[in-house]
Amino acid sequence: MEASVGDVARNINQAERLAREALEEGADVVGLPEFFTSRVVLDDAVWEAVLPTDNKAVAMLESLAQEYDATVGGSMLMHRDGDVYNTYCLAGPDGTVRTHDKDIPTMWENAFYIGGDDDGVVETAHGTTGLAVCWELIRQQTVDRMAGRVQYAITGNHWWTLPNNWPGVDRLLGSVRQYNRYLSEQAPVEFARELGVPVIHASHCGEFDGRFLLYPGDEHGLPYRSSFVGATQIVSADGTVLARRDLDKGPGVVSANIEIPAHPPTPATHDPPDQFWIPELTASHRLYWSHQNVCGSAYYRNNKTESLSTRSHVAVESSPEQ
């Protein structure tokens, strides 16, 4: 997808069009990207995409799943009990919607939601599946909670790269930019190998403008112009890429036949077994991760209450006209 920031109606329409294209081609399972209802960058318009649990995006997934007797899912920002979560919603043909909250927000995503604590293992018409998004795919704890329990995985990402509007970034961090792209493209491949199951993985594409917070409490930050990386892929249990759409091709659909094992396979072993990251991350990745997590979390605490109350007020005022 090439979603816009905060324009939920437009993004739902694009998601439905692409999902319907796949379903018309005969797909039994359709995966949409993480945050298919809005890009999540440092922009206050993102708050416009924070949805209640009963919303039009979930209704669209349910409608398609029942119309085509299929399984359709993707993640969105959803608020409940006074907080916001990145919730993957997977609709089945029987009318059920299974959910998973991403466990740890990635970097500036902390500015808009908090992590959940479920295991992401859900039942579908085709067997037990694991739901995971973006950097969950490269953390050992994700594999640990799914290994030996799932028969396939439905995943997605919203993985960006270094800024292209900061002087000297390519000269100083060109190798990090290249390695970041490699990590994003390999994530679903390695995830399939780790679990020994096929993986369905949907991505965002396109460029975006946002901000980069400098310190906890910073409300403005620096302009950050960048683009998404990764690829939409369908991967077999041994890591073979069965179908792939690179981001330079723009929005679109890939499809392939996957072989879902009759039972969850025996998990792979690890040395050391208590590692946090599956791939080796650069020092730049680790620093960026730690710094933006702290800055984003402070932004969320400072803005959550006012932003959610404003949205609730607007929703109440506009409801008679809808």
From TrEMBL:
Transmembrane segments: none
GO biological-process terms attached to the record: putrescine biosynthetic process from arginine
Molecular functions (GO terms): acyltransferase activity; N-carbamoylputrescine amidase activity
Domain CN hydrolase: 1-260
CDD domains, A to Z: nitrilase
Protein name: Protein containing nitrilase/cyanide hydratase and apolipoprotein N-acyltransferase domain
Keyword set, alphabetical order: Acyltransferase, Hydrolase, Lipoprotein, Transferase
Lineage: Archaea, Methanobacteriati, Methanobacteriota, Stenosarchaea group, Halobacteria
